[in-house]
Amino acid sequence: MADLRVFVPTPLPEQLCELIEKLEPRIELVRDQTLLPPQLYPGDHLGDRNFKRTPQQQAAYEALIDSADALYGVPGQSGAELGRAARANRRLRWVHTTPAGGGNQVRAAKLAEEELQRITFTTSGGVHAEPLAEFAVFGVLAGSQNLPQLLRDQRAHTWGARRPVPLIADQRVAVVGLGGIGRAVARKLSALGVEVVGVHRRSIEAEGVSRIVPPEQLASLLPDVDAVVLCLPATDATRHMLSRTLLEQVKAGITVVNVGRGTTIDEEALTEALIDGRVGFAALDVFEQEPLPTNSPLWELPNVVVSPHNAGTYEDEERKIAELFAENARRLLDGEPMLNVVDTVEFY
């Protein structure tokens, strides 16, 4: 008999199910692909939004959820469905969330304290760090090279005047949040010669970071940096960390990059700063409301790149999540500390 019964309530290709079974043979990985929506693209953890289960299929789906010790993914990527599962299944002891920011799904479940104590929640943190860091480097470089002006000239068929551009190696960049993503950003920027200043709640070892300051000092830092990269989770403490007040104090023409969560920037204030030139360029992969509403002025601003929360999606994403899950299953069964455990106070 298997030591851990795991149900997969979210789309996962069969070859990756088999990989998990190979990596950790002590688990029983239960799945029924007929009960899951087809993926629209590799790494799609929600599946076809038009997929509907029959009442009989829904009953079978919930019965499998309620028979599991652990779940690979949050049912329907929904906090409400996770809450139902936690209440209905007293044997449930572990849920792995496929997003790196899976703490938001746990928060949305509105679980009782007993449920938060009984169930361990883990995320896919770290899996997306490298591609997100590459997007961040792109954003800093695009701002430095004045990409908006190049595109304006190109679309107008104008051979623009020669103008000096700053060397990336002469720039100072603030990386806000030194988790897995922030550390990857710092490492890549530092390799290009950038002076990286980290903003983090505590002092840690971070390759490529010249110094670390606490978030309380962000206001004094922003007038002295050429770009700011936000790599923060969505918590009460990080909401609008890049606030209207701080955006009034930035170095003129600063570049803003966000690869964390959209709620960490006051989006209305950022829009105003982009219009009046206080912010010269923004590369945004995340937004306060997603999908970004069609009437958002960010769509039309020439000095903004809108990425549809896609910068962390890459070819090996699903395989790396599967490998992470298998490693955490091994740790759980062997009594070792698990990776990426969600803080159920701040939910990150």
Would you tell me which CATH topology of the largest domain applies?
Rossmann fold
**What is the top-level CATH class of the largest domain?**
Alpha Beta
Query: Average pLDDT across residues?
Result: 96
Number of strands: 12
Counted up, domains total 2
Q: Rg, please? A: 22 Å
CATH superfamily of the largest domain: NAD(P)-binding Rossmann-like Domain
Largest beta-sheet characterization: 7 strands, parallel
Strand content: 5-15%
Instruction: Please state the second-level CATH architecture of the largest domain.
Output: 3-Layer(aba) Sandwich
Helical percent range?
25-40%
How would you write the strand order of the largest sheet? 8-7-6-9-10-11-12
Question: N- to C-terminal separation?
Answer: 34 Å
> Uncertain runs with pLDDT below 50, 5 residues or more?
none
- Helix tally equals 12
Q: Your description of this structure?
A:
The protein has 2 domains: 4-126 and 314-334, Rossmann fold, CATH 3.40.50; 129-306, Rossmann fold, CATH 3.40.50.720. It is elongated, with a radius of gyration of 22 Å. Strands 8-7-6-9-10-11-12 form a 7-stranded parallel beta sheet. It has a 5-stranded parallel beta sheet with strand order 2-1-3-4-5. Helix 1 runs parallel beside helix 12 (317-334) and helix 6 packs across helix 8. Strand 9 (227-230), helix 10 and strand 10 form a beta-alpha-beta unit. The protein has helices spanning 14-23, 55-65, 79-88, 103-108, 113-118, 129-144, 147-155, 180-191, 218-221, 244-247, 267-276, 317-334, and strands at residues 4-7, 27-30, 70-72, 94-96, 120-122, 172-176, 195-199, 209-213, 227-230, 254-258, 279-284, 304-306. By secondary structure, the chain is of the alpha/beta class. Helices cover 33% and strands 14% of the residues.
